[in-house]
Design brief:
about 120 residues, 4 helices, mainly alpha
Length: about 120
Amino acid sequence: MRTIRCTAAIATIVMSLLNLPIALDDGGNGIPTPAAWLISLLGIVGIVAAIALLRSAAWATPAVVTVGALNLIGAVVALVRSWDGAVIGLVLSAAGTGLALAHAVGRPAKAPQAS
């Protein structure tokens, strides 16, 4: 499980790093400024979530899945509009999301502790 968790975090970090500069330079794709800033913000959130996943925080797996799903939606939009990097975004987002889901499913459920 550790390998799956670490690989999901790495894929999420790489995708998030690719999201960061979009607010400053969208590569000529004509992304509206508010959307570009939200994409960069998603990059920051993704890095935080991936680091939390590496540290095994309880909230990290759903956060990484959410970030990955949002990146998947963005990659599909980029693919439809023929933007640069769409295929890379699609592959990284799918890998990060799929591995995070595999980690969530394969993780043993913790029994509630009695007080």
